[in-house]
Design goal:
72% of the residues lie in helices and 5% in strands. It is mainly alpha-helical and 411 residues long. It has one domain. The radius of gyration is 23 Å and the shape is globular. Its main location: endoplasmic reticulum.
Length: 411
């Protein structure tokens, strides 16, 4: 074989080895938010699975880039609000897709009480800022969010760093129990300990300097964890929660000065800050509730799609509704030059488009009967099949994808 032939053969071998490594990472869930192998069997095709995981990886990179970009270039804050919020929802939704539903389930009773509990908390904060010094209240809250921020960031980062760490660091749980309090315990991995190092840095940076970037990194971690860990259980519960908060948002923004006053006084990472060119108003703001609350509904739609084993469609509808609702909020806010209750536009967008799509497809009964507690038991039952069958199925999927990629490259 001549020299050029040897080089060509070596290039083919290198390409195949790279494809095996990168596809193992994608199918194994090594990228943040990737759909993992136990869930992959629910997808209709390998191409759909791999496309989704590549999109999720791209969304993670885009979210990181967009978060850092205002340090170097001017970005229109209106565009930044929409893109950052949508990317955060997209990433959080895909991280919520796991073999079992998210651990925290919201019941109908909790959903109905939520607007009243939220109103009580809002009034309490309003009174605290009226009675005590704003600096004192924010100092106490900063201590609370310092700890909470480290926990959120250390839980958000491991999917991005685990491929650089030994496997047992990612899998072996360390159980810590508080002395004299047996009921107080915590479970974590070594990879979470590693992730807590940058988490501590950003939380310290925020506590000392109140820099907008540290604020946003903590806030995005809160959003992703909220969407990943919370489950509405069913679309009925989701509708109850969103409709209740729809009226909550309208009342506290339009009929009282309470929410706007608290938002301006509350110096904590419970809102995203977007730098502007205006000295009078240096930042545009978006509350985390306008991301997490609709986000858990959009995540429910994605898990519903995955559980059916059909083409992803209702997630696309819910995500489109969220994007349109948030965009309309920005347009109206700029038109009237006044704060707007984002859920006034987001809730009809999300629920309306999903409902219209559901009616069009004739899936109303299936959607209303969907219950994640039942889904959990079904997945547990399916996981009881023999390990050999699962390994064979996983191996067949990987082989099919790798062969397809090599053939496509050859063409």
């Amino acid at each position: 074989m001549n020299q050029s032939g040897v080089r060509f053969e070596m290039a083919i071998q290198t390409f195949e080895r790279t494809m095996h490594e990168s596809k193992d990472l994608i199918l194994g869930g090594q990228y943040p938010g990737c759909i993992t192998q136990p869930v992959a069997v629910l997808f209709t095709s390998e191409s759909e699975l791999i496309t989704m995981n590549i999109l999720v990886h791209a969304a993670n990179v885009a979210l990181l880039g967009l978060t850092l970009a205002p340090l170097f270039v001017k970005i229109n804050p209106n565009v930044n609000v929409v893109l950052t919020a949508c990317l955060t929802v997209y990433v959080g939704c895909h991280r919520s897709v796991k073999p079992t539903p998210p651990p925290e389930m919201i019941s109908n009773k909790h959903a109905m009480r939520f607007p009243f509990v939220g109103s009580a908390m809002l009034l309490l904060l309003f009174l605290l800022f009226k009675i005590f010094s704003k600096d004192l209240v924010n100092a106490v809250l900063s201590c609370y969010f310092f700890v909470l921020g480290i926990v959120a960031i250390s839980a958000t980062l491991p999917p991005a760093i685990k491929r650089f760490l030994p496997e047992h660091w990612n899998n072996d749980l360390i159980i810590w129990r508080a002395p004299y309090f047996d009921s107080a315990s915590a479970e974590f991995t070594r990879s979470q300990i590693v992730a807590s190092i940058p988490g501590t840095f950003f939380c310290l940076w925020y506590a000392l300097k109140k820099h907008w970037l540290a604020n946003n990194i903590m806030a995005i971690a809160f959003c992703i964890q909220g969407i990943e860990m919370l489950s509405l259980g069913s679309f009925i519960t989701g509708a109850i929660l969103l409709v209740g908060l729809f009226f909550y948002d309208i009342f506290w923004v339009f009929f009282t000065p309470v929410m706007v006053s608290v938002a301006k006084s509350f110096d904590a990472p419970v809102k995203l800050l977007f730098p502007t060119s205006s000295a009078a108003h240096p930042f545009s703001m978006l509350g985390l509730g306008d991301i997490v609350i609709p986000g858990i509904f959009v995540a429910l739609a994605l898990r519903f799609d995955v559980s059916r084993g059909k083409k992803i469609c209702y997630f696309n509808s819910a995500f489109l509704g969220y994007t349109m609702g948030l965009t309309l909020t920005i347009i109206v806010m700029n038109w009237f030059q006044a704060a707007q209750p984002a859920l006034l536009y987001i809730v009809p967008g999300v629920i309306g488009i999903v409902a219209a799509h559901c009616l069009w497809n004739g899936d109303v009964k299936m959607l209303l009967e969907y219950d994640e507690s039942k889904t959990s038991s079904e997945l547990s039952g399916s996981s009881s099949s023999s390990p050999g069958d699962e390994d064979a199925k996983a191996g067949t999927k990987k082989d099919f994808i790798l062969e397809s990629l090599v053939l496509k490259h050859a063409e």
